[in-house]
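I have been asked to look over a protein record a colleague put together. The record follows directly below this note.
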Amino acid sequence: MTYSALLTIILTPLVLLGLATVLTWVERRLLGLWQDRYGPNRVGPGGMFQAVADGTKILFKQDWIPPFADRGVFVLAPAIGMMTVLLSFAVIPLPMHAGIASDMNVGLLFILGMMGLGVYAVVLAGWSSNSKFALLGGMRAAAQMISYEVFMGLSLMGVVMMAGSFSLQDIVAAQAGLWFIIPQCLGFGVFMLAGIAETHRLPFDLPEGENELGAGFHTEYSGMKFGMFFIAEYAGIILVSSLVTTLYLGGWRGPLLPPAVWFLLKTGGMVAFFILLRASLPRPRYDQLMALGWKVLLPLSLLNVMATGTILMLRASL
């Protein structure tokens, strides 16, 4: 293992945790802008130190475990949620010469596998809390995440067929002439909706619906255990945005500007889009969410796979 790879492995989790913390402030400022209100503006210039204040508060909050909870599983659940998100970043290809923790030839499958393991975090959190609201939130989250993982995986098959590889580095290289968002616009739309559902973001935050379930699967959590779920959600937003950049927007490729700037601009734009959805869309009913997946997104993703395969076969026969 080279020193650069070792440095990447050490720094990546630290940078991601810092970015996820800063993103909580960015989200509140953008929501204030789009909803015509101030947002955080008291602590530091532009409320910049609000994230630091919130982090400090949550570190010193009482770490309480309900006496009726399954203690071991209750503690393990947020750690699983945090680790699956952080491990997924190991195969995200950074801009050229910036390093990558692990250039796996099945990197895309590795990320889908880590997202699948993330289901255990919400299910175990809901079950171990021994609370009705938490259990209902955990069951909702499990059904939602498992369902939308199916559509997410199928939506990516068109990208894999066009690139001829599961390696994220190869997928970026295959977009040298044309970004995949153009020929794979249908798969892009399905992937975006699935990504919103996977990260439990509005309007698909039904596992945490406060008007129905209190706080859903993490109702009984407090202190840093709740903070781990909270940070994992924001790290998940960065992960899905990075995947969209890598799979559909050409990764770090772009004219004039340095590769790192292009990667940050594309990923930052997708993060802002996630926040804009929260500011503008209402939450649907749970049955509407599941019907959207199985009755609309599943046929569209299968259609995208068939259309992509047909076009590639016709092109190969010419």
Notes: DSSP finds twelve helices and no strands in the chain. The radius of gyration is 20 Å. Residues 3-34 form the longest helix (32 residues). Residues 3-317 form one domain.
